[in-house]
Specification:
It holds the Pfam family TetR_C_5. Residues 32-51 bind DNA. By secondary structure, this protein is mainly α. Helix content is 75%, strand content 0%.
Amino acid sequence: MTKRNYDAHQTKINIMETAMKLFAAKGYADTSIDDICQQSGSSKGSMYYHFKSKEQLFLALAEDAFTKSWDHWLECSSSLTSATAKLYAYADYFVDHHNRPLNKAGEEFIAKIGPNSEAGQKFFVILMRVIDDMESIVKEGIAAKEFKHEDPKELAFIIMSYFSGLSDSYLFMNREQMKQLFHNATRLLLEGITSDKGD
């Protein structure tokens, strides 16, 4: 890599890291291109060289964040031998690594651009990759007869929606309390909440 290419790459990384912090802190709508350029020390020319728009920048951030998060999870979970163990471990991982403020910015992003827009469809594809990743755990559990034989994609969507909803608890719980909540929620998900008669 030439020095020029290296410098351009570093500029791109700096823009993305700065934008990530700003989107998480201020939300999507309240973060402007000027904010990102000022905080990153980059010119608008540099910004638009790497990203044609704020939408494209947010999509690049989302894809990068989800890909890195899942790759890291695979590394952390490589020694686990059952889908049940992986689901409990993923609940812990979700608490430790989930960026709820940035996810809120994602919800705001979709609300602003619309789910049927080109950028909205691209964001949906990125989100579906996350569902596909969870689906691999579900399929493993079904094959090992740990989980009921349900539609694996639908079950993966339910699990991710379940965890995502629970993540709002960061507003009033510390990390350890959240981990206990997620552990209990995972147990209830696996066991169901129907009581045996007479209990």
